Amino acid sequence: IKGVTEMATEYEIKKQICEIGKRIYNRGMVASNDGNISVKLNDNEFLCTPTGVSKGFMTPEYICKVDAKGNVLQAYEGFKPSSEIKMHMRVYKERPDVNSVVHAHPVYATSFAIAGIPLTEPIMPEAVIALGCVPIAEYGTPSTEEIPDAVSKYLPYYDAVLLENHGALAFSDSLLNAYHKMESVEFYAQLLYQAKMLGGPKPLSEEQVQRLYEIRRKFGMKGKHPADLCPNAKAGKPSCHSCGGNCSCGTVSSTAANDAALIAEITKKVLASLS
Ligand code: 13P
């Protein structure tokens, strides 16, 4: 019975991946065969979209299963895992709290990634609470280790990054939340772009930002966020919202981030052993 239930669950997750694929395609977040989606089943089994298909027209049998190194565990004939699987696997490896990764090329977010402008202006409450700011990972050639390597240093501090001259990457504790993160990134980028067209945004004040951070902490929202980790803020200096996109979060508090990840992993194992 256990095996049957697991298979049913897996099939359900494959259907959900197809549904999210439709949404990113129908919302214009990907063109043609672009983008990819993955979901973690357990430490050594991951479902992912296949390479070279439109994510708007997938059915469950398109979805591939890979191990933690990205090797194929199961794929129907004619389907191979996404060419970007290494990027997804790096996120799972370095973020034990993440259960799903979504990569897309939404027009506004990708335009910022192409112009080399990170999303760092606190312009509206939801973006400040959900994302804080969204940095740009240095350009890498798709399908190589260059993108995972570039993304790696941002993983302890953010739940979404722009990929320079390429697109956006979002990740969270569930498929729906990872997709929502991508929507939030794109909405934030679109608002920022349009506000710039209207003469430039009138950003929230540092005090208003801190009050939003406080709300985020009260909600106990999952994921990483500059509100929790920005070493500038901890040192009593302006947080990364005010450092013009040059926040050095990635270098200063890596010990704290590693500790947090370790504690998360230990907590997960303890909870698993109790259930
Ligand atoms: P795949 O079809 O191999 O997943 O690649 C799509 C893409 O967007 C690469 O960046």
Your description of this structure?
By secondary structure, the protein is an alpha+beta fold. Helix 3 crosses helix 6. It has an 8-stranded mixed β-sheet, sandwiched between helices. Mean pLDDT is 88; it is low at 242-246 and 249-260. It has helices at 2-26, 85-94, 107-115, 125-130, 146-152, 175-197, 206-219, 226-229, 231-234, 249-252, 254-274; strands at residues 36-42, 45-48, 64-66, 72-74, 100-104, 136-137, 160-163, 167-172. It binds 1,3-dihydroxyacetonephosphate.
Pick out its properties.
8 strands, 275 residues, globular, 8-stranded mixed sheet, alpha+beta, binds 1,3-dihydroxyacetonephosphate
Question: Helix and strand layout, with pairings?
Answer:
Layout: H1 2-26, E1 36-42, E2 45-48, E3 64-66, E4 72-74, H2 85-94, E5 100-104, H3 107-115, H4 125-130, E6 136-137, H5 146-152, E7 160-163, E8 167-172, H6 175-197, H7 206-219, H8 226-229, H9 231-234, H10 249-252, H11 254-274
Parallel strand pairs: 6-7
Antiparallel strand pairs: 1-2, 1-5, 2-3, 3-4, 5-8, 7-8
Helix pairs in contact: 2-5, 3-6
The structure holds 1,3-dihydroxyacetonephosphate.
